[in-house]
């Protein structure tokens, strides 16, 4: 059983909330989530002063990564915002690595459409934030599904020659992973948030997941196959995970 507690520590003059998890582990672990949350895991018999000393010793790591994550959220990065994402008039959303401004207007016929670099949401009641969230998440899911289906159709011929049957393509909200493959069920699922990333990143994830039909784990053989099919996959992966396309400056 995991025991969870909410704590606060001051790092270089900044009060930082963190979640402390006590469980059956040998070493302390530290992680900064995409939404800026700080998580510390420690054994049940680790003294509180040891945990605080551990955090103080990693103060630069915590503060730098937390600041970066919060800037990405502020810049409109839905991957970092996760389930707490808000969709307000004037917000920035990303599609295919490009920043788009959200514009909310009142109208009889509700709709979501992209016009250049503007995503226009028409609502009967613009103050209904829950309705707007459902509309936008449905729109973003459909956009991502169309993008990933097109990419998968483009890369599929090489996998078809390897004996891979065409799988069912799905999209759903996932903030902890970009995609998943179920070889036995012939299903590939992509994160809806992947639709925010540049096409090179979406292509990388598609090839990665399709390679799992040949190599179900991340063995040396898997990485060799990735290199054969996409020689620059490491650079694409770095671009994807760094989220370097997100503009954290003034918008």
The oligomeric state of the chains shown is single chain
Number of helices: 7
Shape: globular
**What gyration radius follows from the Cα positions, in whole Å?**
21 Å
Query: What are the segments in which pLDDT stays under 50 over at least 5 consecutive residues?
Result: none
Spatial order of the strands forming the largest sheet: 1-2-4-3
Largest sheet: 4 strands, mixed
Outline the structure in words.
Helix content is 38%, strand content 26%. It is α/β, with parallel strands linked by helices and 251 residues long. A hairpin with a 2-residue loop joins strand 5 and strand 6. It is globular, with a radius of gyration of 21 Å.
Short synopsis of the structure:
With 251 residues, the chain is an alpha/beta fold.
Salient structural properties:
globular, 4-stranded mixed sheet, alpha/beta, about 250 residues, about 40% helix
Layout of strands and helices, then pairs:
Layout: E1 3-11, E2 14-22, E3 29-32, E4 38-42, H1 48-57, H2 59-74, H3 78-81, E5 92-95, E6 98-106, E7 111-115, E8 118-123, H4 129-160, E9 168-172, E10 179-182, E11 187-191, H5 199-211, H6 220-229, H7 233-242
Parallel strand pairs: 2-4, 6-8, 9-11
Antiparallel strand pairs: 1-2, 3-4, 5-6, 7-8, 10-11
